[in-house]
Every structure is written in structure tokens, then in C-alpha cells.
Task: inverse folding
């Protein structure tokens, strides 16, 4: 092979290797619309509630390590301080939402239907709004008012979405057991009135206090 042909061949090989490396880099980076689950996440230990990660809840996270819910203060409709520990003894569905989040508004009727399905009070459905500013919170109050029997709660500091497994994703729904421990978490819109969601709630309610 002549010197000039050898140089061309080497240059081509280098370019191909570089292109392949860039392709590998971007293929392994999880973008906002990437559906595949990272290898690290696939290997994380899951609890027995993982059996409910099907259908509309396929992306449900069910950590095997049970940690208590964060002791973060938020407000009720009257502006009084509330903590998740105040609901200890009940199964709690925490939904973090905002008016600027379209999927949050879309799934809200399903959360209202879930709350109506458990009128005895053993399940507390807590939609916690994270809008900031008086006008935005007023709009959120009006919106939640047409989704009975959901109550109005607010986290005007916009901190709670970053304290749970979703790490800021919206919407975000977290299920706590009667001892106030995080048992399942779901990032994104879901049908919380679905049979899969009801089965998950029933399993948590059936656990001993």
C-alpha cells in the first residue's frame, strides 16, 4: 500500500472510531424523552410492591429500602403549617402539582376519583401545589375547588418535588404507608383511578398498621 493510501485508511478509521464514540455517548445519555431505563436503575432492589408496576403504572418505583417521608412544612387551605407526619396511621397519596404543568392538571380528575373511592378516611389523597406567587396560588385554589373532594395544600417554596425519588420531576405522586414511609413513587401523568392503582392502594391498606 502506498504512503498516501495508508494515510487515508488511518484517517478513515480514526473518523469512524470518533463517530462511534460520540454515538455511544449520546445513546447512553438519558434525555427527557428517553424511554429506556438506565442499567443502574434496573439493578436497584425493589419491594414486593413491584408487582403493581404494570399497565399505566409501568414506571412505578418501589424501593426495597424504606425511608420516612421528609419532615418538610407545607400549608393547608387556611395557611396553617402541616407535615406529612400529621397523617401517620393512614395510607397517603402525595401528589405534587402546579398550574403550569399540563399533565398535572390532566391527571387531577383521576386523583379525585381515587379519593371518592375510599370515603372511610383510611386513604388520604394530598394534592400539594407548588406554584409560587399569590396570583398563581389563587388560580390553583380555584382549579382544585372543582375537583372535589380533593383538599388544597400548598408548598410555595417549591421544595417538595426535590425531596422525593423523582428529584424535581412533575407531576410526581408518592405513596406512604401507615408508618409514614415512602413505599412507591411515580413521575409523570398516570390514571390513579385505574384498576392497577386501586390494587396498589388496597395492598398498602391491607398491611398491618
Result:
Amino acid at each position: 500500500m502506498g504512503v498516501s493510501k495508508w494515510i487515508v485508511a488511518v484517517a478513515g478509521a480514526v473518523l469512524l472510531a470518533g463517530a462511534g464514540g460520540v454515538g455511544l455517548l449520546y445513546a447512553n445519555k438519558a434525555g427527557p424523552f428517553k424511554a429506556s431505563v438506565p442499567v443502574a436503575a434496573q439493578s436497584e432492589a425493589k419491594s414486593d410492591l413491584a408487582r403493581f408496576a404494570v399497565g399505566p403504572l409501568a414506571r412505578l418505583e418501589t424501593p426495597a429500602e424504606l425511608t420516612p417521608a421528609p419532615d418538610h412544612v407545607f400549608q393547608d387551605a387556611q395557611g396553617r403549617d402541616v407535615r406529612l407526619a400529621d397523617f401517620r396511621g393512614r395510607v397517603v397519596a402525595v401528589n405534587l402539582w402546579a398550574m403550569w404543568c399540563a399533565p398535572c392538571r390532566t391527571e387531577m380528575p383521576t386523583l379525585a376519583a381515587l379519593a371518592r373511592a375510599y370515603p372511610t378516611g383510611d386513604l388520604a389523597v394530598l394534592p400539594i401545589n407548588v406554584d409560587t406567587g399569590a396570583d398563581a396560588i389563587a388560580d390553583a385554589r380555584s382549579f382544585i375547588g372543582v375537583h372535589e373532594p380533593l383538599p388544597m395544600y400548598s408548598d410555595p417554596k417549591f421544595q417538595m418535588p426535590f425531596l422525593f425519588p423523582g428529584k424535581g420531576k412533575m407531576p410526581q405522586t408518592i405513596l406512604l404507608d401507615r408508618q409514614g414511609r415512602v413505599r412507591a413513587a411515580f413521575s409523570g401523568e398516570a390514571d390513579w383511578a385505574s384498576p392497577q392503582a386501586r390494587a396498589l392502594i388496597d395492598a398498602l391498606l391491607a398491611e398491618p398498621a
Observations:
- The chain is about 35% helix and 15% strand.
- Residues 2-43 have pLDDT under 50 and may be disordered.
- The beta strands are 74-75, 81-82, 91-97, 123-129, 153-154, 172-176, 182-187.
